[in-house]
Specification:
Blueprint: E1 5-12, E2 18-25, H1 31-46, E3 52-59, E4 80-88, E5 93-99, H2 118-129, E6 131-133, E7 136-138, E8 148-158
Antiparallel strand pairs: 1-2, 1-3, 4-5, 4-8, 6-7
Length: 165
């Protein structure tokens, strides 16, 4: 199934309320061309807005329709979030939130996620050590592109779904 790329824009009004819009874009250009497009489109939108553009993001689509376990549980809830905190080598904290966490992944009697669980451990290992691809290992990083190397915590939290994209 073809999955387009998107440029998502976030706009904020004078009261702090945020809105989003997106443009679908073809998957044939370089990263620098996408950045150039995003900036040019932001300039055009800025000329017609009564608010400010606070963010432009390139969203790279990937077809996930063939995932074996890609089905909702009857007890699944996007407001139950797996909340992870990692640190970089310099000790900077970075949050990672996974909506709709399976409550069965919690350690008994706590809100901590069971880091000995094979699935939780695999996610943590992938964040800390990266994922090997044909072009090299890709590791999640902070905004300064420093690798995430240490897990501070992994727990389940309730978060209002209206508060995040």
């Amino acid at each position: 199934m073809p999955v387009p790329f998107f440029i998502h824009y976030e706009t904020e009004d004078a009261t702090g309320k945020k809105g989003t819009n997106a443009f679908s874009i073809p998957k044939v250009f370089s990263l620098s061309q996408y950045v150039e497009f995003a900036r040019a489109m932001a300039l055009l939108m800025d000329a017609i807005l009564g608010g400010v553009i606070t963010k432009a993001e390139l969203v790279v689509g990937a077809d996930v329709s063939a995932l074996a376990n890609n089905a909702s549980y009857s007890t699944g809830d996007v407001e139950e979030v797996g909340s992870f905190m990692f640190t970089t080598g310099d000790g900077r904290p970075v949050d990672l939130n996974v909506p709709c966490i399976d409550e069965l992944k919690e350690a008994a009697g706590t809100d901590a996620l069971d880091q000995a669980d094979a699935d939780i451990a695999a996610l943590i290992t992938a964040v800390e050590d990266g994922i090997a691809t044909a072009g090299g290992t890709i590791s999640p990083c902070d905004r300064g592109e420093d690798d995430l190397i240490t897990t501070v915590y992994a727990r389940s939290e309730f978060r209002n779904s209206g508060k995040r994209r």
